[in-house]
Design a protein that fits this description.
Layout: E1 21-27, E2 30-31, E3 35-37, H1 49-52, E4 56-58, E5 61-65, E6 71-74, H2 76-89, H3 97-110, E7 123-132, E8 145-154, E9 165-169, H4 187-202, E10 207-211, E11 219-222, E12 226-231, E13 234-238, H5 247-258, E14 262-266, E15 278-283, E16 287-296, E17 299-302, H6 311-324, E18 335-338
Parallel strand pairs: 9-10, 9-16, 13-14
Antiparallel strand pairs: 1-2, 1-3, 1-8, 4-7, 5-6, 5-7, 6-18, 7-8, 10-11, 12-13, 12-15, 15-16, 16-17
Helix pairs in contact: 2-3, 5-6
This protein binds pyridoxal-5'-phosphate.
Pyridoxal-5'-phosphate binds next to helix 5 and strand 15.
Length: 339
């Protein structure tokens, strides 16, 4: 393999072109064979439901190169299943799990030279998405769908990598309401979140921490990652119907349990901020990002000293990394080598 000539250790979290992407069409009640293409543009009807009624869902996962030079997926099946749940909620045609997995394998193999080398800290980000592409003007679900996956090599989501970030409690803008679509990965949720994130960045924070829409009292999640905190031997993370349930969180909670920690998934009140010792954000892009501080109004709560993550967050990060990068054992069978 002739690896792409890229500065892998210094990659930003940004899009770049690779060799190909893969596309499947759903029409006449069935899925087409997937097709690899070098075309980075798509042609669709201007009245496609994804364009004006937001019939769009997506996923995000990473491919890691192991010390032995092979490459692997991490919990691919969970992404496939969540993609189906997202589709169902927006009355879109679910992509069968087998097609989803096959598509990831094919597009990754076709772009093998873009998988960053082990040790660079970078990985190959995989972005599957599904679009409603029938022409409609009434508000109704599309009959036809386009399923695309592109890949792009990425560095850490937050510029500094495993360095604590500052969060700000968002007291005005709500991310999602009960009964809504906050629990699925649809593009509209992100369109609605940008003004909060940009506002936080202008004030010098990396991200916001959203509150529950009903009472404004409980922590929901951050912009694109779930929140957790450490108190004594407890791993505490919000239970909420308005957050996107993170696969990274599910995995780290399991690791915490196996470290002998007690996992509490329950409503987490803002008043508890003062009692936490460490905190972090969880997501495919963010991996585990330590939280340095949470600012709530004029109060700032600190969870990292001298810009360094605390011991529990660090241990969780190392244990997760060892599985994702194929360095240690994978006791749960979360990874799968792409042959
Ligand atoms: C994708 C996403 C996450 C992280 O989920 P993972 O499965 O860990 O990648 C968290 N919150 C939101 C809003 C997301 O869209």
């Amino acid at each position: 393999m002739d690896r792409a000539a890229l500065d892998f250790p210094n990659l930003p979290f940004a899009y770049m072109d690779t060799d190909s992407n893969i596309r499947y069409k759903f029409s006449g009640g069935k899925w087409s064979e997937g097709e690899l293409t070098t075309d980075t543009t798509i042609t669709m009807h201007m009245a496609s439901t994804c364009l004006h009624y937001g019939q769009e869902i997506f996923e995000g996962l990473k491919i890691f190169e192991r010390p032995d030079g092979r490459i692997q997926t991490f919990r691919l099946e969970e992404n496939a299943k969540r993609f189906q749940r997202s589709a169902a909620k927006l009355l879109m045609e679910p992509v069968p799990v087998d097609i989803f997995k096959e598509a990831v394998h094919r597009v990754v193999k076709a772009n093998r030279r873009f998988v960053p080398p082990y040790g660079s800290g970078a990985s190959l980000y995989v972005r599957p998405y599904l679009l409603g592409v029938s022409a409609e003007v009434g508000v109704r679900p599309s009959d036809d769908y386009l399923f695309i996956i592109f890949v792009t090599p990425v560095g850490p989501y937050y510029k500094a990598g495993f360095t604590p970030v500052k969060l700000m409690v968002e007291e005005t803008i709500r991310r999602a309401a009960p009964g809504g679509v906050g629990d699925i990965k649809c593009g509209g949720n992100y369109a609605a979140s940008m003004r909060a994130t940009m506002g936080a960045k202008e004030k010098g924070f990396s991200e916001v921490l959203y509150l529950d829409a009903k009472e404004g009292k409980y922590i929901d999640e951050s912009g694109s990652s779930n929140f957790f905190a450490i108190k004594g031997n407890k791993f505490i993370t919000p239970h909420s119907e308005t957050i996107l349930s993170s696969i990274t969180r599910m995995s780290v909670a399991q690791i915490a349990r196996d470290m002998g920690m007690e996992v509490e998934q329950r409503p987490v009140s803002l008043d508890e901020l003062s009692g936490f010792e460490e905190a972090g954000c969880l997501g495919t892009a963010a991996v585990i990002t330590p939280v340095e501080s949470v600012t709530w109004g004029d109060k700032e709560y600190l969870y990292a000293k001298d810009g360094k993550a605390g011991p529990k967050v660090t241990e969780l990060y190392e244990k997760l990394g060892s599985i994702q990068w194929g360095e240690g054992e994978d006791p749960y069978n979360w990874t799968e080598v792409i042959e």
